[in-house]
Design brief:
Beta-Lactamase, 741 residues, single chain, alpha+beta, five-stranded antiparallel beta sheet
């Protein structure tokens, strides 16, 4: 397996896969957590809206019940009851009106009250002739004529209504007591056995003037219904209150009554009092406003307009009706079923998040609709950040592969260059980059080595040429000398037979000595060259060993950082445990707090759930980090084994260098022995000279010439053999072709 493949498989790929796995696991967990938090925030905001509206209703119910209690105490004291209602309205300016009314002749004073109004109409004192001034007209202003009071009071029935519609409080007769929800509806509710001694009415148009809801409480005497006290809330005021509860410009809030009528709507205020089941939209998404008002002043669909509702959009009707049903069934749902609903408009193709909450008292329902993109904006932002992070990591991964490939490409090139040099091609082309890393230094060293080998090859070729020329010259001289001496050979053959024998032995000994000397010199030079090459290879192996050690150290650093991550995971796990314990303690404290701790108990449960999710995510991260650490340790072990092999090779190289040094030393020791042998040959030659001196009948110069010829012939043969060996040695060497000419 190539180094590039090993690096990709055992270093880069595990890191990338591990990071990708961690990113995916964290991404899925964080996505679910962020989505749950976004949905919980949306639900909590809707519930907070419901809580604030509930407080308004509770305030209205509380004020009406307080006033009814006072009316029970002052029963039959109509004047004080009327004044007390006015004073309450002055204290609570949110109400646009308030009323108090008795059943017909409930206090047996209807006749006296009617007489008092007639007295005032006729210009007499109200109390003339045992009459009663029920409304204290001296202190309580009214713009209604006494005749109208007589007509609307049904013969003196107590029916007072304080109206703030024109700014200042003004007293007028209370109407529709026999049919309206604030009185007839309240009485019906009490007769049904309800434990709630109040009623929050449906929205309606009072006296064809003001759209309102009323908080009404009964006046009871000995358990009998004697009348009611009601406080009115203008729907315009309620719409403004609901509009101020919006936290996003894209959200829409619908406030529905217990009978699914719109009390407030931030999208279109003209829909107030309309049933959600009559809510349609046209092709442009606008609400269809073909409505009439019924006898109670509520909006109803105008069937006479001829509108084909089958062709109209029902998206809002479907959303609100589904949310209304869910809110009504909220008491039957478990905590785990509390969730955000998702709706996609088939016309606009937009997706919406819907949440609802039940409002008590009144059994109203608040529905909040918000685009999904707005609710899940933090989730989408997180996804974008994760995708950008993964893209950056992918780019780093690709850059790492390209960088490693560039380095390994130079190593591969260095291997190819080494193979070509080993094959004898010293003219190989080597391109060295400008970087100063180890691969560039290796290529530079190989380039220098090839250049020096080319120079050596050229020198060897030159030496070969010179040797061949010298061999030819010696051969020619030898031929001439042999021809000149041939004539003298016969005469000297008998005399010089013994001398030739001695001379031949000496010549043979001299030849052997010279061969040994030449061979020793050649061997010493070749051994020295080999030692230099082995030393260079030893340096390369040492550099490889150092690089392998550096990789091992980097694996150790990765392992240490993995251990650091494990410690962080342990810390997060401890925090999750402590958070879980805190959630348990908070739940216990919430239980102790009773109903006041319900909201805090919900937060405690959510903290506990978050702690459990954190513990699970921490466990997953710990397992992944253990697998990553195992992979890194395995890679480090392989690198250490490889480093050990490299160090062993370096040791063997050092042993080879030492052995070659020993061999060179032994070869160089041959030279003195050859010199000693040459001394012995010289002594023998001196003996031959003494013999030649005794051969007076032969020409000393001829003998000397014959000896020189024999030596020349022998040198020529040795030279020819050396040239042949040199040709065989350099036949595969390819020197620089640019210098051959």
């Amino acid at each position: 397996m190539r180094i590039k493949t090993k690096i990709a498989l055992f270093i880069i790929a595990p890191i990338f896969v591990t990071d990708l796995a961690v990113s995916l696991v964290n991404g899925i967990g964080n996505y679910n957590a962020l989505k749950a938090l976004a949905e919980e925030k949306f639900l909590s905001h809707t519930e907070n809206i419901a809580l604030k509206i509930a407080r308004e209703n509770e305030n209205g119910v509380s004020v009406s019940r307080t006033a009814a209690t006072a009316a029970n105490v002052w029963f039959a004291d109509r004047s004080n009851s009327t004044t007390y209602i006015r004073e309450l309205l002055q204290i609570f300016p949110a109400f646009i009106g308030a009323s108090i009314g008795y059943e017909v002749n409930a206090d047996l004073n209807d006749f006296r009250s009617e007489r008092g109004i007639r007295n005032l109409r006729d210009g007499r004192e109200a109390t003339f002739d045992d009459a009663v001034d029920s409304y204290n007209f001296r202190s309580n202003p009214t713009s209604v004529s006494y005749d109208e009071w007589l007509a609307k009071s049904e013969g003196g029935r107590f029916a007072a209504y304080w109206n703030r519609a024109k700014g200042d409080l003004e007293l007028e007769p209370l109407v529709d007591m026999g049919s309206s929800m604030y009185s007839a509806g309240l009485k019906k509710k009490l007769d049904s056995g309800s434990s709630e001694h109040f009623i929050v009415t449906e929205p309606y148009l009072y006296n064809n003037k003001v759209l309102m809801v009323e908080y009404s409480a009964p006046i009871l005497q000995d358990g009998r219904f004697m009348g009611q006290v009601a406080f009115d809330r203008d729907l315009t005021n309620f719409s403004n209150f609901v509009a101020n509860l919006k936290t996003s410009a894209q959200s829409e809030i619908f406030l529905l009554s217990s009978q699914a009528r719109i009390i407030a709507c931030t999208k279109n205020q003209n829909l107030r009092t309309l049933s959600i089941y009559d809510l349609y939209t046209d092709d442009a998404g606008a609400f269809v406003m073909s409505f009439l008002r019924d006898e109670n002043g509520r909006l109803v669909r105008d069937d006479s307009a001829g509108t084909d509702v089958a062709k109209l959009g029902t998206s809002y009707r479907d959303i609100l009706s589904s949310a209304f049903d869910k809110a009504k069934n909220a008491g039957l749902l478990s905590e785990g079923e509390r969730a955000v609903s998702y709706f996609k408009d088939s016309k606009t193709k937009r997706s919406y998040c819907v949440s609802q909450a039940l409002i008590r008292p009144g059994n109203w329902v608040v529905v909040q609709i918000m685009p999904q993109s707005e609710v899940l904006a933090p989730v989408y932002a997180y996804i974008r950040a994760e995708l950008i992070e993964m893209g950056v990591f992918a780019l780093i991964f690709i850059a790492s592969i390209l960088f490693a490939n560039a380095i390994l490409r130079r190593v591969t090139r260095a291997t190819a260059v080494a193979d070509e040099i080993a094959a004898g091609n010293f003219d190989v082309e080597i391109t060295v980059s400008k970087s100063n890393d180890e691969t560039s230094q290796l290529l530079l060293s190989m380039s220098n080595m090839a250049r020096k080998l080319r120079t050596s090859a050229r020198q060897i070729e030159d030496s070969q040429t010179q040797l061949e020329s010298a061999s030819a010259s010696i051969e020619r001289v030898s031929a001439n000398c042999e021809s000149a001496i041939a004539d003298f050979g016969k005469s000297a053959s008998s005399v010089s037979h013994a001398v030739r024998s001695i001379g031949d032995n000496a010549a043979e000994l001299s030849k052997n000595a010279e061969s040994v000397c030449a061979a020793a010199n050649d061997a010493s030079e070749m051994a020295e060259n080999g030692r230099r090459n082995v030393s260079l290879l030893n340096d390369i192996v040492s550099g490889l060993s150092a690089n392998t050690s550096a990789i091992a150290r980097r694996f150790s650093i990765i392992s240490e950082r993995a251990n650091s991550v494990n410690s962080v995971v342990t810390a997060v796990s401890k925090v999750a445990d402590e958070t879980n314990l805190l959630s348990l303690n908070a739940s216990i404290e919430a239980e102790k707090a009773g109903s006041y701790g319900v909201g805090f108990a919900v937060v405690a449960r959510e903290i506990g759930r978050l702690a459990e999710q954190t513990a699970v995510a921490t466990s997953d991260i710990d397992a992944i980090m253990k697998e990553m650490k195992s992979a890194v340790d395995a890679g480090a072990a392989e690198v250490k084994n490889f480093a050990a092999e490299v160090e062993g090779a370096a040791g063997q190289m050092a042993s080879v260098v030492a052995a070659m040094d020993s061999a060179i030393t032994k070869i160089q020791s041959v030279a003195p022995q050859v010199e000693s042998l040459s001394g012995g040959i010289g002594w023998q030659r001196e003996s031959v000279s003494d013999i030649n001196a005794n051969l007076a009948n032969l020409d000393a110069g001829m003998e000397h010439t014959s000896e020189l010829i024999r030596l020349a012939v022998e040198s020529r043969e040795r030279l020819r053999a050396a040239v042949v060996r040199m040709r065989e040695d350099i036949k595969d060497i390819k020197p620089d072709s640019s210098n051959n000419g």
